[in-house]
Amino acid sequence: MELKLTTATGRASEKALQISDAVFGRAFNEPLVHQAVTAYQAGARAGTRAQKTRSQVRGGGAKPWRQKGTGRARAGTSRSPIWRGGGRTFAAVPANYAQKLNKKMYRGAMRSMFSELLRLERLIIVDKFTVETEKTREMVAKLTALKLKNVALICVDPDDKLYLAVRNLPWAEVVDVAAVDPITLIGHDKVLMTVDAVKKLEERLG
């Protein structure tokens, strides 16, 4: 498949790039994409909550008072759940929310997503994308020239200038092609990729 590149000014370039049908020509598999997105979101959950049961709370070894004759209710420990400072009846424990998604399914979902981005004209490929300084206004000027808003920039080993220039823009994000994920792709209206990033992606997903 041959695709026309876009220039830094937002116009169609005379250059064309040969892209892989195996990565950018797949049918959209909605159930697989949904499973990949759900698994990625579930893996990001911390699940670090924890509470103590009555056996884990310190103290409470001695019986508070004798069994009979005091006029009070029977009590065997001061760490009972009904006592202040006692353990919880159904204590929360650390949870692992990770879902299994094998590599073949993950790669298939990513290929399906990139193919759909291309069909919907939400994927833009440029020869290079760099900034001279780490100033936000320079990044805004470049993205405005490309008529991009709410965009993910996918590059190969992006330098610090790109990260610094985009960090104050809540609607833009710079991502290394090796770390691209499903949430990044569905979370932006447009995806801007360099030619090097496309080639690297084809090596990973091809």
Commentary on this structure:
A 4-stranded parallel beta sheet has the order 3-6-4-5. The two termini are 14 Å apart. The protein folds into 2 domains: 2-44 and 102-205, Ribosomal Protein L4, Chain: A (3-Layer(aba) Sandwich), CATH 3.40.1370.10; 50-93, no CATH class. It is 33% helix and 15% strand. The protein is an alpha/beta fold and 206 residues long.
Compact description:
This protein has 206 residues and is α/β, with parallel strands linked by helices.
Task: Describe the sheet with the most strands.
Answer: 4 strands, parallel
| CATH superfamily membership of the largest domain | Ribosomal protein L4/L1
- Would you count the extended β strands for me? 6
Query: How much is the average pLDDT?
Result: 93
Domain count, please report it.
Answer: 2
Helix content: 25-40%
Structural class determined from secondary elements: alpha/beta
The top-level CATH class of the largest domain is Alpha Beta
First and last CA, distance: 14 Å
CATH architecture of the largest domain: 3-Layer(aba) Sandwich
Write out the strand line-up for the largest beta sheet, numbering strands in chain order.
Answer: 3-6-4-5
Q: What are the main properties of this structure?
A:
Ribosomal Protein L4, Chain: A, 4-stranded parallel β-sheet, 206 residues, 7 helices, elongated
